[in-house]
Amino acid sequence: MSTETKKFADSAAVASGFAADFAEWVAAQGHDKITVALSGGSTPKLLFGLWASDYADKIEWARLHFFWGDERCVEPDDSDSNYGVAKALFLDKVQIPEENVHRILGEADPDEERLRYENEVYGHVDIDDNAVPEFDLIILGMGTDGHTASIFPHQSQFLKSPQVCEVAIHPETAQKRITLTGPVLNRGKKVAFLITGGDKAEVLAQVIKKEGDFANFPASHVEAADLTFYVDEAAAARL
Ligand SMILES: O=C1O[C@H](COP(=O)(O)O)[C@@H](O)[C@H](O)[C@H]1O
């Protein structure tokens, strides 16, 4: 298992550092149908913008299949939709076949969608001997409460769920979400956290150093074989 922390000056530098590593990694993959689970929220927006502006013709997008680590149960054109954000910022701007985009249907019944999406994942992603999907790359973020994907501290049982996806509930808004579970995050062949901002510094330090309240932060339970934290100086202030 290898864990690395890459520190950058600010959030823009995190996006460009990750984008450069990503382009190199895609080019080095010896197979097509490279499966990537995207994160949502605000942090990856700079990355998505950069993919559209600087990498549209530098990456063979048709080799990639995009999935999501989590989705909010809203319409795809809702500003809260993780898919909607990615679509507006880069999917509509790069040459990627529609069938390579495997969105979670946030507008569908969550319990039915959880099962449909699980089958979608099984239809395209390698599995291990225990039928756990092995994405080539999973991109994750972390909330100020230590949640990752949509595994929140109050639903930490999802870290050990035997299912591919679970229906999560946001602790403050009660918004329903669909999230990949802990075993799937841990089986990612490569996992990258993108974490920026001083408001995450204290939690990030506990997550990385495994100190203090770390056990209560879902992000600290992601233990993939190849794990990299891309952080800015503000988020890294307590490391
Ligand atoms: O709700 C979510 O939160 C996390 C962190 O989001 P950010 O806005 O702090 O970057 C994100 O990784 C997750 O995908 C998202 O749905």
From TrEMBL:
EC number: 3.1.1.31
Keyword set, alphabetical order: Hydrolase
Coiled coil: none
Catalytic activity: 6-phospho-D-glucono-1,5-lactone + H2O = 6-phospho-D-gluconate + H(+)
GO molecular function: 6-phosphogluconolactonase activity
One record GO biological process: carbohydrate metabolic process
Pathway given in the UniProt record: Carbohydrate degradation; pentose phosphate pathway; D-ribulose 5-phosphate from D-glucose 6-phosphate (oxidative stage): step 2/3
Residues covered by the Glucosamine/galactosamine-6-phosphate isomerase domain: 10-225
PANTHER family xref list: 6-PHOSPHOGLUCONOLACTONASE
Functional summary from the UniProt entry: Hydrolysis of 6-phosphogluconolactone to 6-phosphogluconate.
Similarity remark: Belongs to the glucosamine/galactosamine-6-phosphate isomerase family. 6-phosphogluconolactonase subfamily.
Full protein name: 6-phosphogluconolactonase
